[in-house]
Design goal:
The structure holds two protein chains of two kinds. By secondary structure, chain A is α/β, with parallel strands linked by helices. Chain A has helices spanning 45-52, 74-80, 96-106, 113-119, 135-147, 165-180, 192-198, 216-225, 239-247, and strands at 5-16, 19-30, 34-38, 60-65, 68-69, 81-84, 153-157, 184-189, 201-206, 209-214. The longest helix of chain B is centred in the middle third of the chain and has 31 residues, at 172-202.
């Protein structure tokens, strides 16, 4: 299979008045992969993502998405991508179904709202308001709104931050499903286990720069090859495995 | 990329805008404050004033306990519907009431000692304003008629023939409803718009819209359209309720109704401009109500919402005469009651539109997307 890159970023820079958030980064995202951008808070992950999503202006550099220029073809790009923001709101008095109908209109699509809710396991919340949902449900609903236009790429900005282990695993399954349907996924996270489980390739960002970019396996192999050893022998399970086996894997109303 | 490009060309900003309008309209109808400002407040005022029957004067008079009631003056008084005569009221109560203005006059009719004529003692205070004077002149008129009759004069020197030139009766509702309608449009335009755009920014709803293909001006237009439809439905409801329940005059029927709605729409667009300015300059949610009140309250009081601006002292008149609501109210009354068409109120429309130009110029300067 020929590998085709769907996002190209070269020498991207973003300067705020007193803060140099992104310092000349370059990378490509390949079609059909789950691409992770890792890094501590303030590393520039969200800024990078929002520039690619055409929500924020870059200071310099080149970015193309699906072959389109982010500066001159922003509106065309927006039709091809789905964006989940780290923080976003919805009309507080509308139900989930009404909100999906709204977003369907915004994308000029006809949808079956109940089927969309079923895809993210929220069919019994059709009449609920967004603010009445739990953290994991909110993220699942947000992802549902990004799927309406059957996007080629979906961007997820820290979707699992603040979720409990079950909710995180549910979301991972959902993200894998989205990818298996054919979309490319770009996700930011600061959880390394998440990146290891989910991502085909990861870029590690720190202070506005990409300091490593490869598959999780390759990065680990490189580290081991450099002579690194864990201080403690790893057991066959960790505490999270214990917790999940005690409390169950299934989707629940957190 | 061809498939994608086709996709782009089919994208309709209008369709996306209408989706926002629909969602926003649903949102507005579920917001208690929008419903209260647009419908409940004006309804309360209209109902209160609708039941106050305008036109006829009611004079509250009391009789002194020792007043003679077996005489033609008394009989003439009680047979005149303008007098509301209180009989069994003790002097102490009468005094309290007349000083508070609850009574317009106290009347004592006594037979003169000398002959068969009567003395009428009339007590009035400044508390009830002009009504004391009216009581006096009505009594004089009554006594004049009795005098003419007593003197057997069937052909008096002169009679007055009054002709009412205005063919329609001007009820209180005809004055109050346009004022309330104007105020409803003002408050829904200013408060509604200010809060909505501030909240859309604060709650990042607008940021999520930015991530979809709709262009920014269409987001504003979509929201504005929803508010417009809501406010105009409210206006239609108020006018129709006023017309059918309280006899509000629509001189040329449907034409007048349509003209009033067009006028409402023009006023609302201008008032929404104030709302955009408030949402742009408000630093936080708490500063919106004071800022919005600075716009609405003076107009509520000084624009002829409850009483004509002629009643204000001359130094206040210039203030009244620059406020946009003054001109909207004036135009509404001319359209509704005098049957003026939109072409007859161009001077009022001119001032309103001038305000529109000024306020949207300011709104564009201060508007913030994030």
């Amino acid at each position: 299979m020929q590998i085709k890159s769907i996002i190209q970023v070269s020498n991207l820079e973003k300067k705020y008045e007193s803060f140099h958030a992104v310092k000349g980064i370059s990378f490509e995202v390949q079609e059909g992969e789950i691409f992770g951008i890792l890094g501590p808070n303030g590393a520039g992950k969200t800024t990078t993502l929002e520039i690619i999503e055409t929500l924020r202006e870059k200071s310099s550099g080149q970015v193309t998405v699906c072959g389109l220029n982010i500066e001159t073809q922003a509106n065309d790009i927006k039709q091809l991508i789905g964006v989940q923001l780290q923080a976003a709101g919805y009309y507080p008095s509308l139900t989930l179904v009404e909100l999906l109908v709204l977003f369907a209109g915004l994308y000029n699509r006809e949808i079956n709202p109940m089927q969309m809710l079923a895809e993210v396991g929220l069919e019994d919340k059709a009449k609920a308001k967004f603010k009445e949902l739990s953290g994991g449900q909110k993220q699942r609903f947000s992802i549902a709104t990004t799927l309406i236009n059957q996007p080629k790429i979906i961007f997820l900005d820290e979707p699992t931050t603040g979720l409990d282990p079950q909710a995180r695993r549910n979301l991972w399954d959902l993200i894998r499903n989205v990818r298996n349907e054919g979309a490319t996924v770009v996700i930011t996270t600061h959880y390394m286990d998440e990146a290891e489980q989910l991502c085909d390739r990861v870029a590690v960002m720190e202070a506005g720069k990409i300091i490593a970019l490869d598959t999780p396996d390759a990065l680990i192999d490189q580290l081991v090859a450099s002579g690194f050893e864990r201080k403690k022998e790893v057991k066959k399970a960790n505490l999270e495995d214990v917790f999940l086996s005690l409390t169950g894997h299934e989707w629940r109303d957190e | 990329m061809n498939g994608e490009m086709n996709n782009n060309q089919n994208y309709s900003q209008l369709k996306a805008m209408l989706a926002i309008s629909k969602a926003s309209f649903r949102s507005i109808t579920r917001s208690p404050s929008a419903v209260i400002f647009t419908l409940v407040f004006p309804l309360i005022f209209i109902t209160v004033f609708g039941f106050l029957k305008g036109g006829s004067v009611s004079l509250d008079v009391a009789l002194s306990p020792d007043c003679d009631t077996n005489n033609p003056i008394y009989i003439g008084m009680i047979s005149n519907p303008a007098f509301s005569v209180q009989h069994h009221m003790d002097t102490a109560t009468q005094r309290v009431k007349i000083f508070k203005g609850d009574l317009d006059a106290i009347i004592n009719i006594q037979k003169s000692n000398s002959d068969s004529t009567y003395n009428v003692q009339l007590y009035t205070t400044m508390a009830s304003g002009e009504k004391g004077v009216i009581v006096k002149s009505m009594l004089e008129h009554l006594i004049d008629k009795l005098n003419l009759k007593a003197a057997n004069i069937s052909q008096p020197m002169a009679t007055i023939q009054q002709q009412q030139l205005q063919g329609r009766t001007y009820e209180t509702i005809d004055f109050i409803l346009p004022g309330q309608l104007g105020f409803s449009l003002l408050s829904t335009g200013v408060f509604g718009t200010a809060f909505v755009f501030f909240n859309l920014r604060q709650t990042l709803v607008i940021k999520r819209f930015f991530a979809t293909p709709i262009k920014r001006p269409f987001i504003v237009l979509g929201e504005a359209l929803a508010r417009m439809v809501f406010a105009l439905l409210g206006a239609m409801f108020l006018i129709l309720l006023g017309h059918y329940a309280f006899g509000f005059t629509l001189v040329n029927g449907l034409t007048t109704f349509v003209d009033m709605i067009i006028l409402s729409a023009i006023g609302l667009i201008v008032f929404m401009g104030f709302g955009f300015v408030v949402s742009g300059i408000a630093k936080n949610e708490g500063t919106i109500p004071p800022l919005a009140n600075i716009v609405t309250l003076p107009q509520f009081l000084l624009s002829g919402t409850f009483f004509g601006i002629d009643n204000f002292p001359s130094w206040l008149q210039p203030v009244c005469k620059i406020l946009p609501l003054t001109y909207l109210n004036d135009a509404m009354r001319k359209v509704a009651f005098e049957g003026a068409g939109l072409m007859d109120i161009t001077s009022q429309l001119g001032v309103i539109l001038l305000w529109g130009v000024i306020i949207y110029f300011a709104a564009v300067k201060v508007f913030r997307w994030e």
